[in-house]
Structures are given as C-alpha cells and as structure tokens.
Amino acid sequence: MHVERVVREYFAALGDELPTDLYALILKEVELPLLTVILEQTRGNQTKCAQILGLNRGTLRKKLKTYNLMS
Questions:
Q1: Contact 25, 19 (CB under 8 A)
Q2: In whole angstroms, what is the distance from residue 9 CA to residue 13 CA?
Q3: Closest C-alpha among 23, 41, 30 to residue 63
Q4: Is the pLDDT of residue 53 over 90?
Q5: Rounded CA gap, 22 and 37, in Å?
Q6: Regarding the domain with residue range 19-71, which homologous superfamily does it belong to in the CATH classification?
C-alpha cells in the first residue's frame, strides 16, 4: 500500500528522532485531497459526499469550512 510505504520512509528518514502529532500531520495531508475528489465525483452534492465518507452531514460541512471548500 502506498500510504504504508510513505509512512515507513518517513520514519526511516527521521532516524532516532521521534515525531510528534503524526496523526494530525497525516490527516491534514490526506483529508483535503480526499474531500476535493469526492466533492468533484458527487458534483458538489454534500449529502452524497457525506454518505460516501461515512460522515454526518454536519461534520462534513465543518470540514468543508475548515478547508474553504464551501460553495
């Protein structure tokens, strides 16, 4: 899996240094492109987008506002 390989490479590059807040870092890198692609695929239909992601529509709207994706 591509994501697993990238995470392994990230840790290898760090050497003995331990990362902090890795979950937030990865989520930030993945969430925006994921939301963008799914919104494109659903032609901006937030209800369909929320269903595909398994999110509550209100949660989706908060994420869209966070990333300035509200239309």
A1: yes
A2: 6
A3: 30
A4: yes
A5: 23
A6: Homeodomain-like (1.10.10.60)
